[in-house]
Amino acid sequence: LRSLFRRGRVEQELNEELQFHVERKTEAYVSKGLSPKDARHAALREFGGIEQAKENCRNTRRVNLIETLFQDLRYGTRMLRKNPGFTGVAVLTLGLGIGANTAVFSLLNALMLRALPVRDPGQLVELLHRFPGEPSVRRR
Amino acid sequence: MSKPTDLVQGTLGLLLLKILALEPLNGFAISQRLKQVSGDVLQVSDGSLYPALHKLEQEGWITAEWKATENNRRAKFYSLTRLGRRHLEAEAHNWKRLSTAISQVVKLKEA
Q: Would an 8 Å CB–CB cutoff place B54 in contact with chain A?
């Protein structure tokens, strides 16, 4: 948890830890007769990719997930800003889609799902008038 | 780095826990100690030692503390937690079982 709120501190400790290792190794090589410069090179070479090791250390901490999530979000907004055309089309499509759906639903909702806005809807009757000679319309 | 001594998957954690069970050490001392007690057979590359230590720390099996070395330099010392000790016992038991089984198979006489 510490690594999320005190990232600077954790990062610094990681640096110090690995630096300590390289320094001790350098000393070991110096005592074997290498020049300080060669010894340092040898120690660094033996370590392999220090940055890679650091990244692997960071990855063991789970907060890295949260961190990369924020990175992804930032990357996403950046990319959207870079392609205004694409962004416009996407927003328009989503807007129209959601808008049309809402409109259709609110209409249907009022027409078919809700009871009619009268006191006792069950009591409603339908009155029809038929002219003489008109063929009877079968209802239902 | 050392081809013939590539560690069996998952055993690095066991080795590190065992070494830390003896006494708290810093990363550099751990790699020296591992080399020394295994008669130069086992050697963990520097690049994988620290991620492994951080993993163990994350699991709560070891804790880290900044202390002065005998030469009065600040270093991060790792020590085993109670949880780590229990985990070490379980892992060591598993290892014994596995290694006896494997050596039994390897020892089989050919007809």
A: yes
